[in-house]
Amino acid sequence: MITRNEILETNRMIDDMNLDVRTITMGISLLDCADADIDKFNEKIYNKITTCAKDLVKVGDELAKKYGIPVVNKRISITPIAIAAAGCKTDSYVSIAQTLDKAAKEVGVNFIGGFSALVHKGYTQSDRKLIASIPEAMAVTERVCSSVNIGTSRNGINMDAVKEMGEIILKTAELTKDAECIGCAKLVVFCNAVEDNPFMAGAFHGVGEADCAINVGVSGPGVVKKALEEVRGADFETLCETVKRTAFKITRVGQMIAKEASEILNVPFGIIDLSLAPTPAVGDSIAEIFQEMGLAEPGAPGTTAALALLNDNVKKGGVMASSYVGGLSGAFIPVSEDHGMIEAAEKGALTLEKLEAMTCVCSVGLDMIAIPGDTPASTISGIIADEAAIGMVNNKTTAVRLIPVIGRKEGGHVEFGGLLGHAPVMPVNRYSCEDFIARGGRIPAPIHSFKN
Amino acid sequence: MQEMEKAVITVVGQDAVGITARVCTLLADTNINILDISQTIVGGYFNMVTVVDITNATSDYNEISAKFDALGNEMGLKIRVQHTRIFDAMHRI
Fold first, then answer.
1. Which terminus of chain A has fewer CB atoms gathered within 10 Å of its CB, N or C?
2. Between chains, do B10 and A66 touch, taking CB under 8 Å as contact?
3. Quick one: closest CA in A to B79, which residue?
4. How many contacts does A have with B, using Cβ atoms within 8 A?
């Protein structure tokens, strides 16, 4: 029989430490919706999404009630539209984004991810159409998320795409400048994108996936932080063991919810993504974990090491607790979504360069960072190229989600609201990389990718 | 044999006369058997943890939960009904 202390421990995690299941994301393949007529394609994807996901929100809410744990987000990921819509005879994919937005609203999910293209080695005609449609699609929809994969460890980096994405990000910011450039918060540029990521904005349902799958993202930085309070001043062995044990407990809950959601919805269980994902709430922060480890502010010397051990031990603990682990798994370090990171950035303790170093050891990359609106497209491309190079060489997923805030300069502020939070506009290195980016072509795959 | 379905009911709030009685009456009314009950009062705060067998309950899970929500609201208490599987998942391998 479960003991009173165990019951109270679980409920303390939920009540006082923000333990939750961050997202149940249903992956839906749209490959069978192909049609040359875009109107028919839109009709087919709308019907498929609203049929497959009709009970998703209801089941998520019921499980939350049954176990007394919040299931914060219910979301959908779909086959990258550049692949699913490749057969459509059309010049623009904006109407597809609008259809996705309508489908998301119909089933009640807060985001749908997969307005995406995979161009790490080259473009198809469809990829070009999709990328060109991104700025308008992000401006006219509310819940659609977009991502573009521009590099992999296996294939190198498509520098033409890197150049283009710098321009697309700026254009997206321009088109949504009346809404705090929010379009850019829904757009991610990846290297080594994963096909089963349940977290937004980078979720899409890969072509190697089943027709439909349930992927669950667990979270709980607050629980890790509280656990570390108990071992204040202890050595690194104790620190790492504590993170591992905590990650194990958190993940077990996610695994249980995922299994049950998959049974009720009659959809195969895909993976658990063991990610520490912060929210702007106090007590739900990665920065607070750094402070508990002994750093005055995130960004102080030691931060990269602290993040490396956090990321690694979250995985070590979590892997044991779940039958299938996937997605991004690790610690996210978004700036605008973590009050401690925001404060550190405002004080100047945390810089873009330090964040870049941190992305070598975190689960993804430069995330939710506001930069001056007059940053040149080539500079944004340069940042994307740096981040992609880190991912390519280190065989890890990296990503860039930058928000050039049109009309605002360094020291300004941007307010997205809700889970996306707010952020100071951070300074960007002012030296040009324009000639480097203008070269075009591809960076070949690194030597250690040849493993066959 | 059918596996026993168990739930944990936790009650937290300002102490008052009749909390346990009201909770237990509601359990009896819905044919829910108490397997374990423990209760403490710390600094005037009532704190009860009850493990119950809901296998033969006459209401389904949502109804039970709604009834306890209503009772909690009426008495100014926080009452939570949770299936025990979450605790087993977290604390048992």
1. C
2. no
3. A68
4. 57
Instruction: Tell if the pTM clears 0.90, that is, is over it.
Output: yes
Residue type present at position B31: N
> Poorest-confidence range of A75-89, A157-171, A316-330?
A316-330
Same CATH topology for A27-58+67-191 and A216-445? yes
CA dihedral A6, A8, A11, A15 (to 10 degrees): -140
Q: Render pLDDT for A185-197 as a digit per residue (tens, 0 to 9).
A: 999 999 999 999 9
Cβ-based contacts of B81 with chain A (< 8 Å): 68
Q: Do A253 and B86 touch (CB under 8 A)?
A: yes
Reply yes or no on domain A27-58+67-191 having CATH 3.20.70.20.
Answer: yes
Which amino acid, residue A103?
A: A
Neighbour tally for A301: CB within 10 Å: 8
- Is residue A5 less than 8 Å (CB to CB) from chain B? no
What letter represents residue A394's amino acid? N
Distance CA A422, CA A81 (A): 30
What does the alpha-carbon distance between residue A106 and residue B60 come to, in Å, rounded to a whole number?
28
DSSP B92: -
In whole angstroms, give the CA distance from residue A30 to residue A113. 12
Domains of chain B: 6-91 (3.30.70.260)
